[in-house]
Amino acid sequence: MFSSYIQRIRPINLVYGLRFQSKSAFPAPSLKNITSSRGLINKNDCFSPPTESHNAPLTGVAAGRTVDVIDGNIGQALKQLNNLVRSNNVAQERRKQRFYLRPSKAKAELRMERNKRRFGKGFKRLLQIVNEAKRKGY
């Protein structure tokens, strides 16, 4: 019951970055459905607010971290969201921005990170040379 309710209302959950979407949840309104017994068209029945809001483009901070849940497949959407968060280094950025760093300290931090990466690349290359020499029998 709950899953069908979720598919029907198609909420946009920006906290977890999920947008529920189902092709069969909202049938297109026909003239037969929207006319009342008196033959008048009810304005409220013409538009489905969740459908109209779902078609609007996402903007703001959450736009880049939002994935669609298609036909109730939450597992696949969460996997896609985790990959997106991991590739954008969201956890690392969150840790970085936890405390304020003075500009001089921030520059020093960037320098240290750059040197650490450079050292790691050099060390990796050295290990490759050693392993190659070892393989050749030196």
TrEMBL record:
<dbReference type="GO" id="GO:0070124">
    <property type="term" value="P:mitochondrial translational initiation"/>
</dbReference>
<dbReference type="GO" id="GO:0003735">
    <property type="term" value="F:structural constituent of ribosome"/>
</dbReference>
<dbReference type="GO" id="GO:0005763">
    <property type="term" value="C:mitochondrial small ribosomal subunit"/>
</dbReference>
<dbReference type="Pfam" id="PF01165">
    <property type="entry name" value="Ribosomal_S21"/>
</dbReference>
<keyword id="KW-0689">Ribosomal protein</keyword>
<dbReference type="InterPro" id="IPR001911">
    <property type="entry name" value="Ribosomal_bS21"/>
</dbReference>
<protein>
    <submittedName>
        <fullName>Uncharacterized protein</fullName>
    </submittedName>
</protein>
<dbReference type="InterPro" id="IPR052837">
    <property type="entry name" value="Mitoribosomal_bS21"/>
</dbReference>
<comment type="similarity">
    <text>Belongs to the bacterial ribosomal protein bS21 family.</text>
</comment>
<keyword id="KW-0687">Ribonucleoprotein</keyword>
